[in-house]
Request: fold
Amino acid sequence: AQSVTQPDIHITVSEGASLELRCNYSYGATPYLFWYVQSPGQGLQLLLKYFSGDTLVQGIKGFEAEFKRSQSSFNLRKPSVHWSDAAEYFCALTGGGNKLTFGTGTQLKVEL
Amino acid sequence: DVKVTQSSRYLVKRTGEKVFLECVQDMDHENMFWYRQDPGLGLRLIYFSYDVKMKEKGDIPEGYSVSREKKERFSLILESASTNQTSMYLCASSRGGEENIQYFGAGTRLSVL
Reply:
């Protein structure tokens, strides 16, 4: 069975500080990995995805993520956080089929 | 841009009522999904559909049914709403194939009293 773990339920960072959100997965082969963001009262927006190739992927809004097969991780990073980045972030995976498996989410708070 | 539209942002229903949640996508996607989102549990798949009139159970189908009579429209039905179905419901669609990028609607927050 496949699973996604986001160990941090809440994270608080100061505006301008760097950010790393953790995501670990369990899957028998190389998965397709995603990060989504959900602003308050909104649906989910795709930030970035990893399918194959370069293990460092760039996304929208200045986010990037690195796929590390040896650690079964796909952590999301941003060098300098803006107040508008406050939201909930979800990591997800699929094995190439139709269904996504989501983590439980990390709520990001940005202190001004 | 892909647009997934959920007909209601907020709904308040009574226990025992039959509830319909509607979702429409405008990108001719084959796949459509209904999720339920609860704090601390993330998104859980209720049902998905990979073609008109085709459906498959997700992880938590109990108490729900779905209908897909047209490719662009996917309905979630609560036959007899209960208080434990109070939640945020999210619809998504995808083209299918290997790159299963799902696009989400804004969600419907349902309260069952």
Remarks:
- Chain B has no helices and eleven strands.
- The mean pLDDT of chain B is 93.
- The interface with chain A takes residues 4, 9, 31, 40-45, 48, 50, 58, 90, 92, 94, 96, 98-107 of chain B (CB under 8 Å).
- The two ends of chain B are 37 Å apart (CA to CA).
